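Protocol check, entry for the methods section draft. Step 1: assemble the input record (protein sequence plus ligand SMILES). Step 2: submit for complex structure prediction. Step 3: store the structure tokens unaltered in the notebook. Ligand used here: S-adenosylmethionine. Step 1 record:
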Amino acid sequence: MRLLLHYPYWRQRLRNRIARGLRHYIYAIGLWSAWAIVSIILLDLFGQNGLFISMILFGGIALASLVYLAQWLRIVVLRDRQWEEGAKRETEHLIHEFVSPRRPLPPWNDYMASAELMRCLWQLIHEERPTHVMELGSGLSTVVMAYALEACGNGSVTSLDDHAGYAARTRSQLREHGLDEYAKVVLTRFSRLELDCGVPFWYALPDLCAEPPIDLLFIDGPMRDYHPRIRYPALPILQEYLADNAIVVVDDCHKIDNSYVLQDWLAEFPGLQIENEDGFPRFTVLRFSRSPLNAGDDVP
Ligand SMILES: C[S@@+](CC[C@H](N)C(=O)[O-])C[C@H]1O[C@@H](n2cnc3c(N)ncnc32)[C@H](O)[C@@H]1O
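Step 3, stored output:
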């Protein structure tokens, strides 16, 4: 049943990827169609000479296509790999400036929060001393936050993850680092969403009524591949579990769909304020206050 619930979202993800790939095919078909039409006209106007010009055009377009392909390979494959290696080393170095792990941390990759964001989470935990941290999307950030809570001697993280493999990986990292007491990963599949917001599904939340209110919410999932506005339901759904003056940290705000989601939240929740106005554009720190009245609260 869980697998069945998951199926349509993989289809949606695949559809997004195919749509992106198709754009390139459409450009190529357009270009070669234009060449064919121009060749027919040239042949009609100049006979043999037209054929010669058309062959030169053919060579030119083929050469340009090859250069484009080579550029794409260089940028996407080689430079990306070089960039990733550099970013990985730099980020791991920066993270070790504030965390002193008992064992080597899992290697960083681009899916994970940046070093600046990890540092911000580390500082927020030290300043705000949250009792209950909730994270959407587990990974290295879960381990870093668990270390921060351990250093403060109080609180724990509940991290929701829709992917069994990544949930298990984060769980085993927490175990290796002896941080089980400070963090737990809950495998949370998607379920249909009743909320009228254009997003058809979201995490099937575990029962949070018995948990303490959420003092710090870190939104880093689900992945945008599932739906451009997949992160929108986080606030409308979790607002009732947030403590007054809770901190909400949102990653990937530089991505256009997420920036629209952020703008919608700010318009819909008057008690939501941006805390890091001149901070990093990739992530945003918000303060959630219950007064003034938030949209969605019952009006007496
Ligand atoms: C943006 S990632 C969460 C990253 C995490 N908060 C961190 O900073 O380490 C969102 C989702 O991607 C998946 N994920 C985690 N690590 C991944 C990786 N290395 N590669 C691909 N997907 C990953 C997980 O299912 C996770 O819920």
